[in-house]
Amino acid sequence: MNDALTPLLDEPDESAILAPTGKRRVGRVATPRVALPDLTAQVSFDSHEPISKQIFRALRQAIFAGQMVPGTPLSEKEVSDMFQVSRQPVREAFIKLVEVGVLQVLPQRGTLVKRISPRMVREGRFIREAIETAVARKAAESITDAQLQLLTDNIRDQKRAAKLNDTTAFLALDEAFHYSIAQSIDCIAAWNTIQDIKAQMDRVRYLSLPDVSPLELIIKQHAKILAGLRAHDASAAEEAMRTHLREILVSLGPIAARNPNWFETDEPERVALAS
């Protein structure tokens, strides 16, 4: 993770400016600026996709990958200058990032990358499990040989990425694996529904690989899901998916202990969501 972010000078601390009476005037507290990663390659003006959505995805991915650690300040001007766009699409991207829980707006401090909420991780997993186990069960009933081959090729590529210890490529393949299962039942809406729900889970996943959640273990879990699908065994595919998605409950505690500055204080839910 990029913990050595370079501090930059921000606007002067208005709270230290004297009013005409000689008293200190209360105002915005300056937050030390940091050098943001160059994300311009993630946005294409030739794309039919709205610029705000592209900026949202670029910033979200940078946060997931640890390029912007918790507490990193963001400003509309800074980001709009980076992408050479007006502030409106940046503002729209910021609003969406706040909604999914990776940015927060603090009075007197501005917009900052938010710490990970353990409770939101567990809640996101609970909802994702409900959707993806249903998808796996349905896929086992109707998946085609061509779709099974696509998943087989994906796992082959996962093994190659694991051998190279390329966690970025591995996580992209992991996303594609789950997406392909939803695609096999012609229900992309199911995958789109969980994209924002699993934001906090994705941040933990980046922190957990490969030490806490070995890539080989995840590959074995994917292979078991594929075996259930290939056998057209709905119960086996569903249970394999459930076991796979609950892996994050095992890694969450150790990851939070290793990275205390990345996590909010835990607030356990009243009803256990993994029972």
Task: Describe it.
The chain is mostly helical. It folds into two domains: 7-113, Arc Repressor Mutant, subunit A; 118-262, GntR ligand-binding domain-like (Four Helix Bundle (Hemerythrin (Met), subunit A), Up-down Bundle), CATH 1.20.120.530. 57% of the residues lie in helices and 5% in strands. It has helices spanning 51-64, 76-83, 87-99, 118-142, 145-163, 167-184, 188-197, 199-208, 215-230, 234-245, 247-258, and strands at residues 7-8, 33-34, 73-74, 103-106, 110-113. It is globular, with a radius of gyration of 21 Å. The two termini are 33 Å apart.
What is the number of helices? 11
CATH class value of the largest domain: Mainly Alpha
What is the rounded Rg? 21 Å
What is the ordering of alpha helices and beta strands? EEHEHHEEHHHHHHHH
- Give the integer mean of the pLDDT values: 87
Largest sheet, in brief, is:
3 strands, antiparallel
Structural class designation: mainly alpha
Strand percentage:
5-15%
List low-confidence stretches. Answer: 1-26
Give the neighbour order of strands across the main sheet. Answer: 3-5-4
- Euclidean distance between termini CA atoms: 33 Å
Strands, count: 5
- The coarse silhouette is globular
What's the topology here?
Elements: E1 7-8, E2 33-34, H1 51-64, E3 73-74, H2 76-83, H3 87-99, E4 103-106, E5 110-113, H4 118-142, H5 145-163, H6 167-184, H7 188-197, H8 199-208, H9 215-230, H10 234-245, H11 247-258
Antiparallel strand pairs: 1-2, 3-5, 4-5
Describe what is shown at a glance.
The chain is built from 11 helices and 5 strands. The chain is mainly alpha-helical.
